[in-house]
Write the structure tokens for this entry.
Amino acid sequence: MRLTNFHVPTTVFGFALLTWVSAAPAFARSPSSFASSCVNARVVENVLVASCDIGDLWHTHQIASVTLQGIFNAHGGILEDDGSNKPASFQNSCQSNEVQYTGNAREFAFEADTLFALCRTGTGNNYVNTSIRMDGIRNDRGHLRY
């Protein structure tokens, strides 16, 4: 059997393909695990800093840091572009909801693996409380890594 005059409009096919591609997540990071072996974690600007166990018998800790990746403000909500290796930019339009400064840098509220901030909504000078769980960060013998 041979099909003749079989035609799928490209707009319908293109829309279906675009819908399928946009619905599938590009890359999902695993939950962060650094909190089980690091203490005194904080976020300064867009850098996570903590005292992390280096994995020796004495549980020696050292200061470790990692630049947060792919976290941005979208009209008052902090979102994460999971596959992005770009440095986080949320700090450009968000404020700490606990006014803390380390030198001239803003320190954002942070608990376990969740970042809290006040972020600009995009309308005037309005800010809303928001938070995001930061996935994919681990302690690698005293070094924080994605």
The domain at 27-145 is CATH 2.30.60.10 (HIV-inactivating Protein, Cyanovirin-n). The CA atoms of residues 21 and 128 lie 31 Å apart. The first strand starts at residue 38 and ends at 44. The mean pLDDT is 80.
